[in-house]
Specification:
The protein is an alpha+beta fold and about 425 residues long. The protein contains 15 helices and 13 strands. The protein has three domains: about 160 residues, Alpha-Beta Plaits, CATH 3.30.70; about 60 residues, Orthogonal Bundle (DNA polymerase, domain 1); about 110 residues, Dna Ligase, domain 1 (2-Layer Sandwich). It starts with a strand and ends in a 39-residue tail after the last helix. One of its GO terms (biological process) is SOS response.
Length: about 425
């Protein structure tokens, strides 16, 4: 059996752990620069606040009832780790799928004990971390995902639900479930399925896998088998390596300062390099872009980008920063108020399948090995001791490109100077 453990309203739940006064109140967590709502409590959903709603467009009478908080990713990441640590006490097979979801394998465990086991696990997660979770059980990841959704939405299951693939209950539910609700079926795929007369999850389950593979891909074929209860989708198929990596961010305030832009580009290129190394890839070009606020009609408009070819395929942050900075120098225009800049790594290839052109510059094996060890050490230090423990260049304390997070709560679990204090 496979279980999907999903943290309920995760960002909001993390905030409620350290501020119990938020329980039962409409709470929303905002995106970078306090722009849009990216996480919602059940109470704020009931007020009609949509996911992705711009904060400034929320009606005043609704906003007065809500608590809107800035994103606190350091806290959320650490709380996610703590939840995973508890899950690992119940089974050694834990695959983290996202910051708030993990797949667990209970292979070898008696099936008739799993409901009680998962309820005990759910209780321990809540007791040890304060985070409420829902658990879906089945013989495949896709059915476990559906079961988790039911466990979360239907109170009768008390947060834990098992779907037997061939039961009458499963058949009845899948006959009512639109294909758009199935994990891995995007809107465009759903539209194409409708042309084949497939609109529900049950119709997809009963379709010919080989026929669907001809019209879609091997992933769609596997989804059919998953709906039948066969576990055949590796998580890698749902989290494929990216073909491009973009890192960008709107500034906390408009700036004309070239130094602000240079620091932002350096930070973005370093972060992109970290992401690239995580997926064991190499980049062969980098695009740098910047733009003004298109809604400010009173200011000159400017949007520019440039692609800088790299001398050789690399994941070394120093190479990426050097190329990105050179691109900035070419497209920067003085006298302009900039709102956003970013980088995109392009022409990505696998680290182990690099192809060299006849005219490409090549690094010696010794130099490449030395550079890889340096980057691995940098990533390890930042992973173990906190983000930006080691970085390329030191940003100024006061700059325009830092995030605006006026309502961020303390980073209780990762910063000594922000640790919670008890008063009597």
């Amino acid at each position: 059996m496979i279980a999907l453990v999903d943290c309920n309203n995760f960002y909001v739940s993390c905030e409620r752990v350290f501020d119990p006064k938020l329980e039962g109140r409409p709470v929303g967590v905002l995106s970078n620069n306090d722009g849009c709502v990216v996480a919602r409590s059940q109470e704020i959903k009931q007020l009609g606040v949509a996911m992705g709603a711009p904060a400034h467009q929320i009606e005043p009478h609704i906003r007065r009832q809500c608590t809107l908080l800035s994103s606190n990713y350091a806290l959320y990441g650490d709380m996610s780790r703590r939840v995973t640590d508890v899950l690992s006490q119940h089974t050694p097979h834990v695959d983290v799928y996202s910051i708030d979801e993990s797949f667990l394998s209970f292979e070898g465990f008696p099936t008739d004990t799993l409901i009680d086991r998962c309820r005990a696990m759910r209780y321990q997660v809540r007791r040890d971390t304060g985070i409420p979770v829902s658990v879906g059980l089945s013989t495949s990841k896709t059915l476990a995902k559906i079961a988790n959704h039911r466990a979360k939405k239907e109170p009768g299951f008390d947060g834990v639900m098992m779907m037997e693939p061939d039961s009458d209950d499963t058949r009845s539910f899948l006959q009512q479930l639109p294909v758009t609700e199935i994990w891995g079926v995007a809107g465009r795929s759903a539209a194409r399925l409708r042309t084949l007369g497939i609109e529900t999850a049950w119709q997809l389950r009963e379709a010919s896998p080989k026929h669907l593979r001809k019209h879609f891909s091997v992933v769609m074929e596997r989804i059919v088998y998953e709906l039948r209860g066969e576990d055949c989708i590796p998580l890698d198929d749902m989290t494929q390596s990216k073909k491009q990596i973009m890192v960008s961010r709107s500034f906390g305030r408009l700036t004309q300062n070239k130094t602000d832009l240079r620091e932002a580009i350096r930070s973005h290129a370093s972060r992109a390099g970290e992401k690239l190394r995580k997926q064991q890839g190499l980049a062969q070009a980098i695009m740098v872009f910047m733009r003004t606020n298109r809604f400010r009609q009173d200011l000159p408009s400017y949007s520019k980008s440039i692609v800088i070819p790299l001398p050789y395929a690399t994941c070394d942050s120093r190479d990426l920063v050097r190329a990105a900075t050179a691109g900035l120098e070419q497209i920067f225009k003085s006298g302009i108020w900039y709102q956003k800049c970013g980088v995109m790594l392009m022409d990505l290839c696998d680290h182990h399948n690099e192809q060299l052109g006849l005219l490409d510059e090549q690094q010696s094996d010794e130099k490449r090995e030395r550079n890889e060890k340096l980057m691995a050490t940098l990533d390890k230090l930042n992973r173990e001791h906190g983000k930006n423990t080691v970085r390329l260049g030191m940003p100024r304390k006061v700059n325009a490109w830092e995030l605006r997070c006026e309502n961020r709560t303390p980073r209780y679990t990762t910063r000594w100077d922000e640790i919670a204090t008890a008063k009597t």
